[in-house]
Amino acid sequence: MMYPLVGELAEDGIPVTVACRVLKLARQPYYRWRENPVTEAEWIQAHRINALHDAHGEDPTFGYRFLAHEARKAGWRMSRRTAWSLCSQTGILSLAQRRRRGKGKKAGPPVFDDHVQRIFSADAPNRVWLTDITEHPTAEGKLYCCAIKDVCGNRIVGYSISDRMTSKLAVDALNNAVVRRRLEGQDVAGCILHADRGSQFRSSKMAHALNRHGMVGSMGRVGAAGDNAAMESFWSLVQTNVLNQRRWASRQELRLAIVVWIERKYHRQRPQDSLGGLTPVEYENKITTSAAAAA
After folding, report:
1. Which residue, 9, 270, 11, is CA-closest to 153?
2. Which DSSP symbol is given to 159?
3. Number of H helices, E strands in the chain
4. Is the pTM above the cut of 0.85?
5. Could you give the CA distance from residue 48 to residue 82 in angstroms, rounded to a whole number?
6. Which range has the worst mean pLDDT, 56-65, 112-121, 236-245?
């Protein structure tokens, strides 16, 4: 799963030795994989997934048993157990399944006005950022992730992952985003950071961090999920493509999966219709180049 990421990082100028050390991978298996990246078993599995996906597209209400039956009719034999595993890994879910509902908590009073008003777009980076926190269980306990998205190119400019949901989680994500942008030579002063009314975003630590960076805080209304819908849509992607893929044995395992998916899949491999078929990284590079040429 992580070998392609090593290759992509190498193309960006990060040595293979460094990438393997950070990702805790051995170099020799990576070089063997590079010579033969697709095994026969992986090729068969890919075609099985395609068959399941095609059957799901024909009737989204089918469960994995019916999908396995349709895949066998298409010439790709597999057991029901295999079909269930592949459907779980790829997020192929029946629309007839009942969605889980969590218990809501009463939101506190706002400390910032709503400066976004559900307008989730900007003509340049670092004008409007959105932020929110998600959580997911592991065998070791829950893992919390706070991410910050720039609405201009939908890029996740910063994030923080911890085993505790405190104000520090949100502040660390903000600081991470600011440092990244400054390393890229970009100024964040005047940027709006929009969030819900969670206590982490209403804390004095968050207010001080925003003042220190010259940014403007913004908050939606109580019980109005649409006020931060663009960030909720990102968490929905994470839920489908990472969190719900399997049961996670450790926090470190899930932490690594989240980081790899954001940096490799979401940023560099997943084109978005709202960006004209470009990925977030491609879109930002395009508008940055255009702005430099105009100047």
Report:
1. 270
2. E
3. 12, 5
4. no
5. 9
6. 56-65
Classify residue 216 by its DSSP letter: E
Q: Residue type for 252, please?
A: Q
- Summarize pLDDT for 205-235 with one digit per residue, the tens: 999 999 999 999 998 876 556 678 889 889 9
Residue 91 has, within 13 A of its CA and on its CB side, a CA count of: 9
Asked if residue 250 has pLDDT above 90, the reply is yes
Token pair belonging to 163 = 């085993």
Largest distance between two CA atoms of the chain: 62
Cβ-Cβ contacts under 8 Å for 65 (sequence gap 6 or more):
80, 83
- 28: tokens are 């020799």
pLDDT tens readout for residues 51-89: 888 888 777 777 888 888 888 888 888 888 888 888 888
Rounded Cα–Cα distance for residues 119 and 111 (Å): 20
Answer for the pair 178, 158: CB distance below 8 angstroms, yes or no: yes
Q: In what order do the strands lie in the sheet with 216-219?
A: 155-162, 141-150, 128-138, 192-195, 216-219
Q: Read off φ and ψ for residue 128, nearest 5 degrees.
A: -135, 125
C-alpha distances out from residue 50 to 86, 102, 254, Å: 10, 33, 26
Q: Which helix (H) or strand (E) holds 259?
A: helix 251-260
Burial class (CB within 10 angstroms; exposed 0-12, middle 13-18, buried 19+) of 235: middle
Structure-block tokens of residue 130: 């959105």
